[in-house]
Amino acid sequence: MIYTLTLNPALDITISAEFLIKGSINKTQLKSVSVGGKGINTSRAFNCLGVKNKAVALCGGIFRKNIEKLLNDENIDFHIISINNSTRVNIKLIEQKSEKLTELNGYGPAISQGEIENLFDFIKNIKPKPDYFVISEVFLKTLMNQFILIL
């Protein structure tokens, strides 16, 4: 079994508009809503390859239920570590006339020490131990020594 970890998942909302007028009201069409994040995308790829895996992610706030539903809809096996702050939202705007993509990516939520400890407790207690644990995060360097001790 392979586990993937997403420390900073996102609810990705893609919309399109014929053209964008800055400083004005723009009419858009919803194109898609999905869950993003490096570990979740890795689990998505494993699913396409038929590889058994589980995505672990830190999620909270008003979008948590949406994220859980979207992961279920995609048949992604997952475990959510609850956090108090809201998971980030990313808006992708496709301007049809120019074919340009504009991205508005939210900042990730602050994660408390207690929430990090909950993550470590979950990892320590995985039974049976995973064959692989994929950690694909940019800011992981500060936590790497703790992860090495756990695994």
How many strands appear in the DSSP assignment? 8
Output the helix-strand order: EEEHEHEEEHEH
Estimated structural class: alpha/beta
At CATH's second level, what is the architecture?
3-Layer(aba) Sandwich
How many individual helices? Answer: 4
CATH homologous superfamily assignment = Ribokinase
Overall outline: elongated
Mean pLDDT reading = 91
- Stretches where pLDDT is under 50 for at least 5 consecutive residues are none
Describe this structure in words.
There is one protein chain. With 151 residues, this protein is an alpha/beta fold. It has a single domain, classed as 3-Layer(aba) Sandwich (UDP-N-acetylmuramoyl-L-alanine:D-glutamate ligase), CATH 3.40.1190. 27% of the residues lie in helices and 35% in strands. The chain is built from four helices and eight strands. The chain has helices spanning 38-49, 64-73, 113-124, 144-150; strands at residues 2-6, 10-17, 29-36, 53-60, 78-83, 88-95, 100-105, 132-135. It has a four-stranded parallel beta sheet, with helices on both faces. β4 (53-60), α2 and β5 (78-83) form a beta-alpha-beta unit. The longest helix is centred in the first third of the chain and has 12 residues, at 38-49. It is elongated. The mean pLDDT is 91.
